[in-house]
Amino acid sequence: MHIIAPSILSANFAKLGEEVVNVIASGADWIHFDVMDNHYVPNLTIGPLVCEAIRPLTQAPIDVHLMVKPVDRIIPDFAKAGADIITFHPEASEHVDRSLSLIRESGCKAGLVFNPATPLAWMDHVMDRLDLVLLMSVNPGFGGQKFIGETLVKLREARRRIDAYKDRTGREIRLEIDGGVKTDNIAEIARAGADAFVAGSAVYGAGRDSDPNRYDSIIAALRAELARAG
User: Fold this and answer.
1) How many Å apart are CA 88 and CA 98, to the nearest integer?
2) Which of 28, 31, 140, 198 is positioned for an S-S bond with 178, CB 3.0–4.6 A?
3) Contact 66, 92 (CB under 8 A)
């Protein structure tokens, strides 16, 4: 099953609750929640209080991407605020295994995020702690960036490792992509191995350009392209 996870980084923050409700009503699967600290990345966004505010508005999973350093202090706060999935960058943790364990002990699914230049080797010895691997196809910090084509090579390699692990253990790990995902490249990205897709400006921008309360057409278009990918 392909997962579409619109990033609220590109939503209208003056109407954030409506944006979350409407995008899920239009067929999105998850809400992607970008957390930036102006330290690990050069931008500052939102924290646990916003997550707590939108939690009662939807039953859809909230997929929290922590672009913060250090990570351990804030993990329990997001778990209490209603996150279902929490991912972080291995460079932002002193002990990757410990941070993954903390997420899972807090009742959430856990994942690692790989920047375009971060090697996949970080995942090799913590596969048993991973529920999700997220590959950045842009450098993190800002929405609306262009997809980095070399990510497709990395995506195929991540899929190979995940499939080999599943063959060995029976455990499934989702493979998510974030950055520059649009209708004209999502099929190619899916064929490279992704099964979850973060789309921020592609979804929220298209919705605002036509009808601010309806995202049906853009999400349907993304799904149609995914169907073409097989």
Assistant:
1) 12
2) 198
3) yes
DSSP-assigned letter for residue 45: -
Q: Give the angle subtended at the CA of 197 by the CAs of 166 and 67, to the nearest 5°.
A: 95
Q: What is the value of pTM for the model shown?
A: 0.95
Q: What is the mean pLDDT of residues 12-27?
A: 94
- Which tens digit of pLDDT belongs to each residue from 42-94? 899 999 999 999 999 999 999 999 999 999 999 999 999 999 999 999 999 99
The residue whose two tokens read 């002193």 is 94
Residue 81 dihedral angles phi and psi, to the nearest 5°: -80, -10
Say how far apart CA 23 and CA 8 lie, in whole Å.
Answer: 10
In this structure, CATH architecture of domain 3-229: Alpha-Beta Barrel (3.20)
Q: Where are the domains of the chain?
A: 3-229
Q: Which of 102, 91, 84 is nearest to 39 (CA)?
A: 91
Mean pLDDT of 87-107: 97
Residue 149 dihedral angles phi and psi, to the nearest 5°: -60, -30
Half-sphere exposure of 193 (CA within 13 A, CB side): 19
- The per-residue pLDDT for range 112-170, each reduced to its tens digit, is 999 999 999 999 999 999 999 999 999 977 777 889 999 999 999 999 999 999 999 99
* Active-site amino acid positions: 34, 178
pLDDT at site 209: 55
**CA triple 197-200-119, angle to 5 deg:** 55
